[in-house]
Amino acid sequence: MTTTDITAKSLRTVSKDDSDYLASLIRTVPGFPNPHIIFRDFLPIFSNARASRILVDSLVDALPTEPDSIDLIAGLEARGFLFGPLLAERLGKGFLAIRKAGKLPPPVISESYMLEYGQASIEIENDAIKPGQRVLIVDDLIATGGTAKAAANIVKKAKGQVAGFSFVIELTGISGMNDLEDYPCSSLMTMPA
Fold it and tell me: Per the residue annotation, which of 12, 66, 79, 170 is the catalytic one?
């Protein structure tokens, strides 16, 4: 893959060189986890201190809402667990893990949804969100939006409020971001699906 496949969005406090550098570390793996999927691997960012700093700086810069309107950062398993706590710490907020089914002790709140390649469920601990808390949901990538919509539903089931969504990568040509139009959303870069 060439960096021309990735378009880093213009951010207020992150230089074009830094955003292009971040984009250059994203790896494309065709045919994973099945032949019809193109996997976007952003894990190489975390093996580099400069890239990790740029990622968190960029996420703060691109927040879809004001920091004062966020109480918790919720990271989706698994890659949202890598940068979600870093973002929460930077903003002085708590972190909430949204786990795949069967990873948390009961009682839990769960939500099932369809993936591009099957069905899945996510869960949070029953008392993880206090009523009325405003939750920013973060993940590495938005494709069809199934996981993101399920995360919004689980926050609402827990009587929380969805403050918005923050993604590292937005796949173009798929309606995932459009399906979240009721919420403030941001992404750092776009890539073709």
Answer: 79
Q: Give the per-residue pLDDT at 36.
A: 82
The CATH number for 139's domain is 3.40.50.2020
- How would you list the strands of the sheet with 108-115, edge to edge? 7-8, 185-192, 161-172, 134-142, 72-76, 94-100, 118-125, 108-115
27 is catalytic: no
Q: CA-CA distance, 175 to 139, in Å (whole number)?
A: 16
Looking at 27, 50, 89, 116, which residue is catalytic?
116
Is 79 noted as a catalytic residue in this protein?
yes
Band of pLDDT at residue 11, cut at 50, 70 and 90: low
Q: How many domains does the chain have?
A: 1
Q: What is the pLDDT of residues 93-112, one digit of tens each?
A: 999 999 999 999 999 999 99
Q: Which tops the pLDDT comparison, 15 or 180?
A: 180
Q: For residue 98, what are the domain limits?
A: 64-190
